[in-house]
């Protein structure tokens, strides 16, 4: 069965296709704005649910990733200056990457959330500016991609690497199984 991905993220699509899944991309275009009093986890979970429910289809996956440091959200940077501001705050510190996935299947909605701790190594502004000049940070929560050049910023992760990339594969497979869809290699 084809999985509809309610996200334009090329990384999410790549991870699903890496598993041999047939994927159709249909971004949900849900506005991403934190509500007053909403926790970072609640925010990521709400957006994942809204994305999964906004796109019609028999099997729809929504996801949202948020980077959090001291209860402050770091979403996608607006520009290079915003990316530098974010990366300066994250360097030399440990932050959380929250990724929530929601699967709408057979009239039911299932959800799971991953929280991974990521520690950045200390870096100077020249190093951060050179990273920003690659263009990689501009469409990523927290202004970095751990699977690309951004790996050079990371000292350690405690948790799910794929969750930091934006799609905790183990949770997606669990939600599919709960919906009665067994994963089979190469099928």
Explained architecture:
The protein is 32% helix and 27% strand. The protein has 187 residues and is an alpha/beta fold. The protein has one domain: Alpha-Beta Complex (Maf protein), CATH 3.90.950.10. Strands 1, 2, 3, 4, 5, 6 and 7 form a seven-stranded mixed β-sheet that branches. Strand 3 (59-69) and strand 4 form a beta hairpin. The termini are close together.
Chain-wise SSE layout:
Blueprint lengths: L2 E3 L4 H9 L4 E3 L14 H15 L4 E11 L2 E3 L5 H11 L3 E12 L2 E13 L4 H9 L20 E5 L2 H5 L3 H10 L9
Parallel strand pairs: 1-2, 1-3
Antiparallel strand pairs: 3-4, 3-5, 5-6, 6-7
Helix pairs in contact: 3-4
The percent of residues in helical segments reads 25-40%
What is the third-level CATH name, the topology?
Maf protein
Q: How would you classify the helix and strand content by structural class?
A: alpha/beta
The gross shape turns out to be globular
H/I helix tally: 6
Overall number of structural domains? 1
Report the strand count.
7
Q: What's the alpha carbon Rg, rounded to whole Å?
A: 16 Å
CATH-scheme architecture: Alpha-Beta Complex
Low-confidence stretches: none
How would you characterize the largest beta sheet? 7 strands, mixed
Strand content: 25-35%
Question: Averaging pLDDT over every residue, what do you get?
Answer: 96
CA(first)-CA(last) distance: 10 Å
Please state the oligomeric state of the protein chains shown: single chain
Question: What's the order of the H and E elements?
Answer: EHEHEEHEEHEHH
Specify the CATH class: Alpha Beta
């Amino acid at each position: 069965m084809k999985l509809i991905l309610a996200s334009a993220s090329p990384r999410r699509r790549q991870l699903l296709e890496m598993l041999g899944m047939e994927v159709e991309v249909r971004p949900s275009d849900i506005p991403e704005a934190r509500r007053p009093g909403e926790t970072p986890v609640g925010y990521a979970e709400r957006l994942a649910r809204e994305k999964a429910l906004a796109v019609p289809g028999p099997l729809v996956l929504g996801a949202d990733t948020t980077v959090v440091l001291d209860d402050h959200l770091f979403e996608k940077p607006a520009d290079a200056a915003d990316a530098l501001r974010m990366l300066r705050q994250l360097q030399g510190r440990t932050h959380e990457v929250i990724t929530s996935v929601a699967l709408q299947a057979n009239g039911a909605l299932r959800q799971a959330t991953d929280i991974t701790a990521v520690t950045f190594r200390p870096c100077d502004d020249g190093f951060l500016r050179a990273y920003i000049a690659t263009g990689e940070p501009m469409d990523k929560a927290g202004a970095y991609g751990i699977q690309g050049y951004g790996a050079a910023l990371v000292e350690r992760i405690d948790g799910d690497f794929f969750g930091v990339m934006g799609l905790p594969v183990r949770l997606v497979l669990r939600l599919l199984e709960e919906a009665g869809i067994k994963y089979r290699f190469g099928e």
